[in-house]
Amino acid sequence: MTQAAMNNGIVLYELKLEREMVEASLGVLTQMPKLISVLSSPIISEQEKEQLLDRIGSEMQMPEKLIIFLKVMCRHNMAEELPDIYTYYKQYWDEQHKVKRVCCIFASEPSEKQMQEIKNFLDARYEGYTLVYQTQIKPELLGGVILRVEHEEYDWSYEGRLAQMEQAIRA
Questions:
Q1: 3-class secondary structure for the chain?
Q2: Phi-psi region of 109 (alpha: psi -120 to 50; beta: other; left: phi over 0)
Q3: Which of 37, 39, 25 is nearest to 74 (CA)?
Q4: C-alpha radius of gyration, the chain, whole number
Q5: 101 near 132, Cβ under 8 Å?
Q6: pLDDT of 64-97, one tens digit each?
Q7: For residue 128, is it left (φ>0), alpha (ψ between -120 and 50) or beta?
Q8: In sequence order, which residues have a C-beta less than 8 Å from that of residue 27 and are 6 or more positions away?
Q9: CA angle, corner 26, sides to 40 and 8, nearest 5?
Q10: What is the pLDDT of residue 75?
Q11: What is the value of pTM for the model shown?
Q12: pLDDT tens for residues 1-51?
């Protein structure tokens, strides 16, 4: 991710648009590589790109500020960076609103008791933050759970516990 993408992610945040609207719009646009390719193409005129953005913005009911932002990104040859801009926007939004995203990976569907224990542990660890949980089921774990919060990982899977025991024995 370039510094320019990060800076433009902050600019997008400072437009003070509702996150849901940005996600609904940019989330879709950044998943369309052909559209990004068209918006990045030096062969297609600036006017054609802007007309395309106006049409897409109208169909998707995008706020005018977001359409203008996208046009400016195209004018400055930043369309290829839109996926990174969007990614950084979400990270920056979370930082500003004290939100941490938690990925919980289980071998099978967790019980309510398991989830509550995890929430209690993480609530104490990340006091003052709003935690947003996402769960994944990966049967290859065999058992236990792996928790990921930004750059931290808590590996309480069977494999992780065995690796911890092996390290303790070797130490």
A1: CCHHHHHHHHHHHHCCCCHHHHHHHHHHHCCCHHHHHHHHCCCCCHHHHHHHHHHHHHHHCCCHHHHHHHHHHHHCCCHHHHHHHHHHHHHHHHHHCCEEEEEEEECCCCCHHHHHHHHHHHHHHCCCCEEEEEEEECHHHCCCEEEEECCEEEECCHHHHHHHHHHHHHC
A2: beta
A3: 39
A4: 21
A5: yes
A6: 999 999 999 999 999 999 999 999 999 999 999 9
A7: left
A8: 86
A9: 70
A10: 95
A11: 0.81
A12: 999 999 999 999 999 999 999 998 888 888 888 999 999 999 999 999 999
Q: Structure tokens of 122?
A: 């993480």
What would the two tokens of residue 135 be?
Answer: 């769960």
| Tokens 């929430």 found at | 119
